[in-house]
Amino acid sequence: MEKNGVTPAVEAPNSDAYYDDKASSTKQDNYTVDVAPARRGTIHDGVWGDLDEDGPNYRGLGWVRTSIIMIKIQFGLGVLVMPSILHTLGMVPGIIILIALGLLTSWTDWIVGTFKIAHPEVYTLADVGMLMFGKVGREVLFVMYWLYLIFVAAAGLLGASTALNALSEHALCTAIFVFICAVVVAGIAAIQTLDKISWFTWVGVVGIFSSLITLAIAVGIQDRPSTAPQAPLPWDKNVVAFNNPTLLEAMAAISTIIFSYSGTPAFFSVISEMRDPRKYNKALILCQAVVIGGFVILGAVVYHFVGVYVASPALGSAGVTMKKVCYGLALPGLIAGAVINCHVPAKLVFVRIFRNSHHLSKNTPTHIITWLGCIFTNVSISFIIAEAIPVFGNLLSFAGALLSTPLCLTIECMMFIWEDKRTGRLHSGMSIGRKILHAANFLLILGSFFCMITGMWASIDAIRGDVKKGNTVAPFSCADNSNS
Fold first, then answer.
1. Which of 189, 203, 325, 433 is buried most deeply by CB count within 10 Å?
2. Which of 394, 369, 371 is nearest to 462 (CA)?
3. What average pLDDT does range 221-232 have in this prediction?
4. What's the whole-number mean pLDDT along residues 85-114?
5. How many Å from the N-terminal Cα to the C-terminal Cα in the chain?
6. In this structure, are residues 226 and 317 in contact, taking their beta carbons and an 8 Å threshold?
7. Which stretches are transmembrane (predicted)?
8. DSSP per residue, 370-396
């Protein structure tokens, strides 16, 4: 029976059985747990419908691979600008804000997991919008989230093209490099399940970490960064513990940090492909520990040694040779990030088209053709956005402020309050601890609106400044984007 337009999972009997990957299909807490494809019979899932050996195994992720995918969703383009953010804010407040926002998004990530367990039929924020606000909420959140992922994927294509420019010394037109990246990304993103893509995210995470560790070592042993005045001229890193940014500069930096942590809404799609969704919290703890630690440690180390002379992206800070080495190591990670951010929005559209249809979980010709069409369309739109918008960097900041802040902070806090109201926990006699949690969520909602408005203001101001100074490039430009 449908509830608010969303088909719920089959009711399951209460059981204290332990979720074991080796066990046969088990139902517990209104959630069907899948097993390895070779051993599963027909089961019913709240999102994918009837799953059996005739279709893709959309419930094949273990918690470790889930964590790696979650890390890769967040740990990519954002970490490359952390040294610049620390300079804008100052080392001390920058690190405090990095950790604080990491913990706040960890809270909203946790809300996603608890909400998904309570509502197995939810696959995206659009489904959340349907439950909380009806059809209008569903459409608004679907468009916002899809558009956000398309912009992130476009940024990923540009990041990968930057690596190719650095490695080849701009051997081809940048637009051609972006097109090559789009073709490669589409080919990998077309793999049907996150379970089968997860091997590539392992490579991507190792690549990004290796490149940043290599950069940190390189700038640590060099006499001075490549962009600093060279010997015998004196130079000063100008590393500041506390800086004095304007409100717009500070909010632009904070919006970038929020953008870097904004994988939260994508975690609905990831947990939907887990064998055992109850192990999501284990994956979340590992993910956030790695991401927060990586942002803080790698950002602080690079900024300490490079200071004001940090390149953007940071991988170009150690000279031409090391730039090639760092980008060579990072390239798989940049590609992997683009793959995830092209796969997820394509699957949003795909699930939306075939929800409650047998084509969703069966390898029918209609299933395959539509899936490939979703991939091709989404990658094509990301390619066009990446190449057609002259002030892409600042526009991406604007999109991040407008979309990532409400999608990864505001909506999740509303979900927490709405779920307590639905279950009857929100009442006058609730505990002091629960009241504090509600007050904290309400304050976080207000804070997220402030960040969204000021972040958009800062981005618009930056776009105006670039246009006045002529710091823009023509659409589909051939200019080298690796020399910043």
1. 189
2. 394
3. 78
4. 95
5. 56
6. yes
7. 75-104, 145-164, 170-192, 199-221, 250-271, 283-306, 326-346, 367-389, 395-418, 439-460
8. HHHHHHHHHHHHHHHHHHH-TTHHHHH
Going from the C-alpha of 267 to that of each of 63, 180, 346, 399, 445, the distances in angstroms are: 12, 28, 15, 20, 20
Is the distance from CB of 185 to CB of 335 less than 8 angstroms?
yes
Do 483 and 312 form a contact (C-beta atoms < 8 A)? no
In sequence order, what are the beta bridge partners of 3? Answer: 6
pLDDT digits (tens, 9 = 90+) for 14-62: 323 222 333 333 333 444 444 444 344 567 777 777 676 777 888 889 9
Mean pLDDT, the chain, rounded, equals 84
Q: Count of H helices and E strands in the chain?
A: 16, 4
Q: Are 373 and 151 in contact (CB under 8 A)?
A: no
Residue 462 is predicted with a pLDDT of: 83
CB atoms within 10 A of CB 187: 12
**E-assigned strands of 225-307?**
none
Residue boundaries of the structural domains of the chain: 62-469
For the domain spanning 62-469, the CATH number is 1.20.1740.10
Q: In angstroms, what CA-CA distances link 102 with 74, 161, 170, 255, 265?
A: 11, 29, 36, 13, 15
